[in-house]
Every structure is written in structure tokens, then in C-alpha cells.
User: What shape does this take?
Amino acid sequence: MYVILVYDIGEKRVGKMLRLCRTYLNWIQNSVFEGEITEVRMKELTIKAEKIMKKEEGDNLIIFSSRSDKFLDKQIIGPERSSTDNFL
Assistant: This one.
């Protein structure tokens, strides 16, 4: 599946969440990630994210999902933080 993940995390935990999300998805903007991921890896990511988060302090994670990135239109205005193309 293709996901766009956005988080709003307390300042003390931002670094941990950034490192976690970068291991699973492509970092495209501050607190925003996108990419293809299996359901199992998505579940793994959410479990690990919940361990970092402090919901009582207002931390949250929003995940938009689609079967494929082909069903989304994406327009970038300004410089792109990182390319989402992966070359093997």
C-alpha cells in the first residue's frame, strides 16, 4: 500500500520519531513521510511510534493510505526535500 504519514510530536521526541519513520518511508518535508509499505511493516511502524508518543501531551500520528501512488496527484511547488525515486 502507499501511505502519507504526518506526525505532530513533542519537541523532546521529534528526533526519535524522525529516525523511526525514515527507516520505513521517504522523508519529504518536516514531519511528513510517504512511500510504499506492506501492511505488516505499517503495523510494526505504528506499534513502535505509539511507544515513542505521549498521547496525554497531545502527540498524534495521521496516516493516509491508498492502494497505490498512481491514484494520487502530487504537485510540488518549491524545492523538493528529497526525491522519492529509489534506484537499485
Summary: Helices lie at 14-24, 39-52. The chain has a mean pLDDT of 87. The longest helix spans residues 39-52. The two ends are 20 Å apart (CA to CA).
